[in-house]
Write the structure tokens for this entry.
Amino acid sequence: MTDWADRIVVIVAACWGEPRGAGGAPAVRHVGAACAEDFAAAGAQVVVVDSDAAALTELCDRIQKNGGKAHWLPADLVTPTDLERARDACSARHKRIDVLVNCHTAIEAGGIEASSYDSWRRVVEQDLLGPAFAGKAFLPLLKRGKAPAVVNLGSLDGALGHPLFPSYSAAKGGVAALTRVMAHDFGRYGIRVNCAARGLLAERGAAASPEMAALEAQTVLGRSGYLDELTAVIRFLASDEASYVTGAVIPVDGGLGALTAGTIAHAAAFKAPRT
């Protein structure tokens, strides 16, 4: 089993999340923030990199109050010099890192025709260039790491496409390809690179909106996923238990992408009642 107390985990992106009510979805915590709490609870030393000082201070204070180890470093997520400064500060304190988790999650709604050029630039910069730049910036510290690993946050939308979020879909599709290329490039240093492709997410106990309930009915499991279910997969991919897994894109979507859209309801109409 992985001894997380001896691991240093850098989480890049923990503040820019999904807008409240996007696509009918209830607001959820940023996946990066949830990952920081999860790794810290497992015993890892966590470093969170983002640009919102107030949100990062609150996150790290909460982790520390719960007995975890966490601090944050400021950086604009698409500015290479900022990321390199964060890397150098991390190097001065820790000398190495063992895990890099890229949780970039910029989403802006609007079809291709209606969306602005600036909106496309913002989302693609954050969700695709962000992980690429972070991987490049922190590579020197990963080379010194203990069983080093990178986990990128992907999305089912990156595989199938979401007409409400075309820029997000395109960027997350790029993250899947980026993951495979990074796995190849970084493999020479013994660094594994994988991707956890998320589906619907909700907070435990939160009531689903009618729009979300309709989407949940299309999943094999009939519900949204919970943040702890996603972070558990991310932590597994970063762990020693996944030591022979690299270049993989793992769906964490409740089976939403497993079947042709609409077929669950169609099949249900012809199934005999269960006994």
Notes: DSSP finds nine helices and nine strands in the chain. The domain at 4-268 is CATH 3.40.50.720 (Rossmann fold). Strands lie at 8-12, 45-50, 69-74, 99-102, 149-155, 192-198, 201-202, 225-226, 249-252.
